[in-house]
Amino acid sequence: MKILNVLMVPLLFVSGNNNGQEKKDIHSITGTKYKSDSIVENVLKKQLKQGSTYTIDDAGAGLPKIQFEAKELEVTAIVAHELLNSNGYNTLGTEDFNKKIKNIFGRIIDSDSQSHFLYVNYFDKCDRSFVTYSNNSVDYEGGYIDKKRKLFTDFYYLPEIIDYQKEYPTLSDIESSKIIRKSSSQVEVEIPHWKDVVNLKEQRKVNNQRIIARNMYLFNDNKAYIIWLVTHDKNFIKLLVKNLSYDKEPKFNEMLINEYIQSKDQYKIGELIFAKNCNKELEIREGILQSLTDTYQKSSNPKDLHGLMEFVSKLLETDEYNNYSENEKIKMVAYLANTYDFLFKKNHRNQDGWDLRWNILGAYFEDDSRSEIKWPKLKEEMQKNNYYNLPNLKEVISYAEGFDSVGAPD
To answer: pLDDT tens track of the chain, all 410 residues?
Structure first.
């Protein structure tokens, strides 16, 4: 891989407090010129001496994870940048990149900050701490926004993204000696070399493709990578949509929707549509609702929508979603009725699969005894809020008031 000849490395990031883990100080590296090959080689030497991390968690009881250093994240970004450039990546200008970061991750880049990396926690979009441990899908899962190079990447150890044996053959001797670390109970544990990791070549290929596909799609709007992402990067797409609230790509939405509608707990699709933002306010992902409507229209199967009715029952009749206020619950019902009840009204007489007696609002007009929120309150709040500017809500409220014990008015 061709590496840039000269690199300025002004870098500053903050290490969070990760109790119970092996810690090393992370220092600012400023104003120093390096030959990038030298940086890469120095980091590679360190990582080869340290050994593979793939089995460290399983190698022995109490073996602490190792915190990576600033220069290790830097070389991940260097390699990612070169990889993207060699695959036609169009680096955005600062303003366009910052706008993308806000739209995708909900993060605002401070132009006055000297930090060149921003951490995105895939588990908690509101967490602003900076993590300096590699992902393990349990304790840590996140990626790094490189504000300098205008790209996004997970942290990778160099053997995970470059063919180090080919590119740096003179370092092969490093992997000829055993690597021993002591666990917290002082038991000596042998750590495997990177060269002994099974399927490392295949994993390296996937990691490189992941860097390319994510950046080309997210920042260059290259739709050609969508299929690869939903096929080979499913976990990231799930986290991006559900945890980070990105609902702008119908194919991503559809992937998650299909999982929910095939689940025995189909009602939990409501947790994909509604969430709390970082200010603890209701967040509505209208892109998911639109994609759910599109899914139903493709399949002509009303059962794809049954989770919406079931979610409303859980919302209004149980304590399961009491993290939402009464008014928030009413707004949530309004959005679901605007979709479900409208489609019910249009299709339930000529399409198998609908509950012919009830839709969402019709059920509560006819019998609100199981809900603490009674029909008059439900209707009044929706009217007071100008029907939340939803196009079908006023119509389906009127339609609901035609229900009786037999069912729908038509």
So the answer is: 444 333 333 333 333 334 444 443 333 333 333 346 789 999 999 999 999 976 655 444 467 788 999 999 999 999 999 999 999 999 999 999 999 999 999 999 987 888 899 999 999 999 999 999 999 888 899 999 999 999 999 999 999 999 999 999 999 999 999 999 887 778 888 899 999 999 999 999 999 999 999 999 999 999 999 999 999 999 999 999 999 999 999 999 999 999 999 999 999 999 999 999 999 999 999 999 999 999 999 999 999 999 999 999 999 999 999 999 999 999 999 999 999 999 999 999 889 999 878 999 999 999 999 999 999 999 999 999 999 999 999 999 999 999 988 888 98
What amino acid occupies position 198? Answer: V
> How many residues make up the chain in this entry?
410
